[in-house]
Design goal:
single chain; 434 residues; alpha/beta
């Protein structure tokens, strides 16, 4: 067990001290106990390091804003322990950390296993919507729905104790850390970088996983050079819990046979001597690799804007983060030659410059925007920005206070219409899915 400063993670070791280190990374909403049934076999060959996400499993609630931040905390923890090179297996969000390690810190990894992982987890809108639900209702709705996301129906019915354990794991997580993890997954998208992963990689997925299933696994295999795919029959998202023996066997075989030796520039436990340059995050194009275990089309890289000012690129990013991908996609699909200049103006100046200024945070900007829209009677835009305010962290009660303030200074009739619009939006956005 460990003490956890804000920049490190709660952890535990199992296995012989002299053995090579194998790290197991958890899924969102779980603790290191999701790996309990792998430990007896894995510790025969490795010193197993497990960690808890911030606010999970009793870890201190220091939210991590991104997968990059979470990865940095993991590395800071390992540096403090003198662990410089290791194998890594991660499930879902833990898998995202594994991909981040492979892309940005390849010299640290001897081998990699990605379980129930994806280069992009659903859509940003889905995870930010989940954050809105947690901010409004707490974690209970997410906890109650966890078994159906994590396990097959047959397993959940046959294993009520494990099902209840899963519910309690989520229920005892810190809500702020859970919301931050949702934001981290919302912004995670490494589809364009998969070809730069040079670590021996196993991609493992449950055949019945409805969260990050075989399709996402095949995207990883298609993009990562020489990656191998393993599909575990009769398992859903939390496959190490549902099919522990199969997962353990696959991990043992992978890490026993695909443990990459130290790079030539490494000496002892010091991976990079002071005089050696750090390998770039994006290496030069690799030579042709053997075909992956299935004929799978490579993941398409996201389109890049050509000849567009920098403020447009930053503006479209902020616009998507605040308003959501679905809304922005709908606007862009409706844009034609007559409206494209206007949409570029809005994206560059409203979103790339004003919304992107550091002087006010997004919560405050949402308060100002809601008030201005009430004053102008722009109820259609008010609906859009009520959703945005929820995404930016305002609670329904705080939105109510903004509208009450607007009623005093903008007029009761204007605020009356605004309350009707906001009430409907809040009901739609904060009602947990059945």
């Amino acid at each position: 067990m460990s003490e956890t400063p804000p920049n490190t993670l709660q952890y535990r070791f199992d296995g012989p001290e002299e053995a090579p280190v194998l790290i197991l990374g958890p899924s969102l909403g779980t603790t290191w106990h999701m790996w309990d049934r792998q430990i007896p076999e894995l510790t025969k060959q490795w010193r197993v390091f497990r960690f808890d996400l911030p606010g999970h499993g009793g870890a201190l609630a220091h939210p991590a804003a991104s997968v990059t931040d979470l990865t940095a905390r993991l590395l800071a923890t390992l540096e403090g322990l003198g662990v410089h090179r290791f194998g890594y297996a991660g499930c879902a969000l833990g898998g995202a950390v594994g991909i981040e390690l492979a892309l940005r810190h390849p010299e640290r990894l001897a081998s990699l296993a990605l379980i129930a992982a994806s280069p992009r987890f659903g859509t940003a809108d889905e995870f930010r919507q989940r954050g809105v639900i947690v901010r409004t209702n707490g974690l209970d709705p997410i906890a109650r729905s966890a078994p159906e996301r994590w396990f097959t129906g047959g397993f959940a019915a046959a294993q009520p104790a494990i099902t209840e354990w899963a519910v309690q794991m989520v229920r005892t997580t810190d809500p702020g850390c859970y919301i931050a993890a949702c934001e981290a997954l919302a912004s995670f998208d490494v589809r364009a970088g998969l070809g730069s992963v040079g670590v021996p990689t196993l991609v493992l997925v449950g055949s019945e996983d409805q969260v990050t299933g075989p399709a996402e696994a095949r995207t990883l295999v298609a993009g990562i050079p020489d990656a191998r795919l393993a599909v575990v029959p009769g398992a859903s998202h939390l496959v190490p819990v549902e099919q522990p023996a199969a997962v353990t066997d696959l991990l043992v075989r992978h890490f026993s046979t695909a443990w990459q030796p130290l790079p030539e520039y490494a000496t002892g436990h010091v991976v990079l001597p002071a005089a050696a340059p750090r390998p770039p995050v994006t290496p030069a194009a690799a030579p042709p690799q053997p075909a992956p275990v299935a004929e799978i089309a490579a993941a398409a890289a996201p389109p890049q804007a050509q000849g567009v000012p920098d403020t447009y690129d930053s503006g479209i990013k902020v616009r998507r983060e605040v308003l959501g991908d679905a809304h922005v996609d709908r606007i862009l699909e409706q844009t034609d030659a007559f409206t494209e200049d206007f949409q570029e103006l809005v994206t560059r100046y409203a979103w790339g410059e004003v919304w992107n200024r550091p002087g006010l945070d997004r919560r405050t900007r949402s308060c100002v925007t809601l008030t201005a829209l009430v004053a102008g009677g722009h109820l259609d835009e008010l609906a859009v920005h009520t959703r945005a305010a929820l995404r930016n962290g305002l609670t329904p009660d705080e939105i109510k206070e903004v509208l009450l303030q607007a009623a005093v200074y903008c007029g009761v009739p204007a605020a009356s219409g605004a309350f009707r619009v906001a009430q409907q939006v809040i009901r739609e956005e904060t009602t947990p899915p059945e």
